[in-house]
Amino acid sequence: MGGLTLPVTFPVGRAGTLDFIAGFDPINPVNGLVAESRVTDCAEAATKKPHMTHRAMTAAKMRFLMLEVLKVFMNVELMVDEKLIRGDVRTPEGDGPFPTVCFYHGFCVDRIGIMRLHELFARKCVENGIACVKFDFYGCGESDGDFSEMRYLDEIEQAKAIYNWTKEQSWCDPDNLYPVGHSLGGAIVSNIIPELQPKGAIMWAPGNVAYYDISSRVHAIPGSYKETYDIGGLMMSSEFLSQMRKLDIVKRAAGYEKEVLLVHGELDEKVPVYAIGPYLDLYGKHVKLEIIPGSNHQFSSVSWKNQVYDCSIEYLKRKIAE
C-alpha cells in the first residue's frame, strides 16, 4: 500500500477507508469505530522495530492521533427496514463507556437543528461527560430518501432502531441511555419509551398537536387533500397527514412510569404551551416541567437555548447519579 488515507466516514457494518504502509497490521473497523488496541499496537510497533523508516514511524503516530479524533466525532450509517439513514456520534475523551443521549429532531428540520439547536446541545452533552448520537430521519438531512416519503410511524421504527444500535456500542453505557427529542421528535420520544423503558427521557415542546399545526401551514382540507404539499420548500405527502390524524400521540405514550422532563417555551407558536396539559395528566407525579419564559418553539435566543440546555443537563446528571 502506498500510504495513509485519513477516514472521512466509518459507515456502520462496512469497511472503513483506511490504507496503510506495507508491514503494518491494519486497524479493524468495527460498527463504525476503530479498535483502540490495534492502533496502540501499531504505535508501539513503530518504536520497537529498528528497521522501520521514519516515514513508517510517523504514519503509526498519525494513526494513534487519528483514533483520538475519532473518539470525539464519528459519522455513521444505519439501515432500517431497507431505508438508509445517516447520523453522527460525539463522545467525550477517554475510554468510556459513557452515559449517552439519543437525540431526535422534529418536522422539516434535521439533526443539526435550526440555528444549530441540536448540534450545540450535543456539544454541551460532551462537555459534561455525556455522549450524543443524532440521526437524520429518512428523507431528511443527509439520509437517503425524499421528504415526501417521510411517515410518522416509520420515524418511530427508526428511532427505536437508533436507540437499540446505540445500546450495543462499546462507548455507550446501556444503563444510562436517554432519548431526547424536540417537537415531533419529542412526540416520538413519548411514543418509544413505553417499549424501550429507559431510565429517563426528555421532551422539548413535544408535538402532540402536530397534525393540526402542519395541516394549518398548508391549508390541508380533510376530504379534499392534494397528493402533495409544498411546505417551506419540501414536498410533503398527504399520506403523512392521513396517518397522523388517525393517531392519538398522547394515548400511545401510556405505559411509562419513570420520571420524564418536559421543556416548553411559554410563547410557543407551533405547539402552544397549553398542549402540554395532556402529557401532565398522563405522567402525573412522574413529570418535571420547565417553562422557558417568553420562548418560542425553536428556543431561538442564546438565553432560551442555554436555559433548555442547562435544565436538560441537570436532569441527565441527576438520573445518571441515581
What characterizes the major β-sheet? 8 strands, mixed
Provide a count of the helices. Answer: 10
Radius of gyration equals 22 Å
Sheet/helix structural class: alpha/beta
Largest sheet: spatial strand order:
3-4-6-5-7-8-11-12
Percent helix, as a range, is: 25-40%
Shape: globular
Give the strand content: 15-25%
Order of helices and strands: EEHHEEEHEHEHEHEEHHEHEH
Give the averaged pLDDT, no decimals.
85
- Total beta strand runs: 12
Low-confidence stretches: 1-52, 64-70
End-to-end separation: 51 Å
Per-chain topology:
Blueprint: E1 29-30, E2 33-34, H1 36-48, H2 54-72, E3 73-80, E4 83-90, E5 98-104, H3 117-127, E6 131-135, H4 152-167, E7 172-182, H5 184-196, E8 201-204, H6 210-218, E9 228-231, E10 234-237, H7 238-245, H8 249-252, E11 260-265, H9 277-283, E12 287-292, H10 302-321
Parallel strand pairs: 5-6, 5-7, 7-8, 8-11, 11-12
Antiparallel strand pairs: 1-2, 3-4, 4-6, 9-10
Helix pairs in contact: 1-2, 4-5
Describe this structure in words.
With 322 residues, this protein is of the alpha/beta class. It is 37% helix and 21% strand. The protein has 10 helices and 12 strands. The protein has helices at 36-48, 54-72, 117-127, 152-167, 184-196, 210-218, 238-245, 249-252, 277-283, 302-321; strands at 29-30, 33-34, 73-80, 83-90, 98-104, 131-135, 172-182, 201-204, 228-231, 234-237, 260-265, 287-292. The protein has an 8-stranded mixed beta sheet with strand order 3-4-6-5-7-8-11-12, sandwiched between helices. Strands 1-2 form a two-stranded antiparallel sheet. β9 (228-231) and β10 form a beta hairpin. α1 (36-48) packs antiparallel against α2 (54-72) and α4 crosses α5. The longest helix has 20 residues, at 302-321. The protein is globular and about 55 Å long. Residues 1-52 and 64-70 have low confidence and may be disordered.
